[in-house]
Design brief:
- 46% of the residues lie in helices and 19% in strands.
- The chain has a 6-stranded mixed β-sheet with strand order 1-6-3-4-2-5.
- It contains 7 helices and 6 strands.
- The mean pLDDT is 93.
- α2 crosses α7.
- The protein is α/β, with parallel strands linked by helices and 193 residues long.
C-alpha cells in the first residue's frame, strides 16, 4: 500500500481511467451531501487564507497489467462518490465559464481535457471515470450534454443540476471557485495487487 496526500484535481489529472467495479454500490450522494461539499468550497472561496480542505480518501488498485503505452486503468475501491460528485461539479463549472464567456486561463475545454476525458483516446479509454452500468450511461449523457436515457440515475442528474444552480445563483467568481477546487485535498491510496 502506498498513501500520499494530494488534491483531488491532481488525482484526476493525467492520462488515466478510474473504473468502479460492478460489485460497488450505485452513485448515492444526495442533495444534502452536495450542499455540504458546496458549503465547504464556498468557505475556501471566501476565506482565501485557508490552505486546504480534506474531503476524504480515494483508494484504488491497478486493473491488470500496466503498460507505459496505454491508459492506466485503476479500480476504485473507495471514493467513487467523491470522484463522481467532483466530476459533476467540474462539468457544471465548465458550462458556467462557457456561458459567461469570461476571459480566463481555465476553460470548459481545459476542464474536460484535464479532469473528465482522456482527450486523445478512443472508447473505452476516452472517459476518466467509469461508474457501474446504470450510473455510467447517465454520467456520459450529462458530460456529453446530451438527452438523458429513459431510465437514468436520478442522483447524478439532480446533483449536476444542483451545482449548476448554485454556481449561477451564488454569483461566485468562477476563477475563485476553480482555485477553491484546487484546495480540496485527499489521501491518495494505491493498493498492491
Amino acid at each position: 500500500m502506498q498513501a500520499n496526500e494530494s488534491t483531488i484535481l491532481k488525482l484526476l489529472g493525467g492520462q488515466k481511467q478510474f473504473v468502479v467495479p460492478i460489485y460497488q454500490r450505485k452513485y448515492g450522494w444526495k442533495k444534502k451531501n452536495c450542499k455540504q461539499l458546496w458549503d465547504d468550497i464556498l468557505r475556501l472561496v471566501n476565506k482565501k487564507d485557508i490552505p486546504s480542505h480534506f474531503v476524504g480518501s480515494i483508494v484504488y488498485i491497478e486493473k491488470g497489467l500496466y503498460h507505459a503505452s496505454s491508459i492506466h486503468s485503476l479500480y476504485v475501491i473507495d471514493g467513487q462518490q467523491r470522484l463522481a460528485t467532483i466530476s459533476l461539479l467540474l462539468h457544471a463549472l465548465g458550462d458556467a465559464i462557457e456561458k459567461q464567456g469570461i476571459d480566463s486561463e481555465i476553460t470548459k475545454q481545459k476542464i474536460g481535457n484535464y479532469y473528465l476525458f482522456n482527450n486523445e483516446e478512443e472508447e473505452p479509454f476516452y472517459r476518466k471515470l467509469l461508474l457501474i452500468k446504470g450510473d455510467n450511461e447517465t454520467l456520459f449523457k450529462v458530460l456529453d450534454g446530451k438527452e438523458y436515457p429513459k431510465i437514468y440515475s436520478k442522483n447524478i442528474v439532480e446533483n449536476h443540476n444542483y451545482f449548476k444552480k448554485q454556481i449561477k445563483s451564488s454569483g461566485v467568481d468562477l476563477e475563485d471557485l476553480y482555485a477553491a477546487l484546487n484546495k480540496l485535498t485527499i489521501v491518495d491510496i494505491a493498493l498492491d495487487k
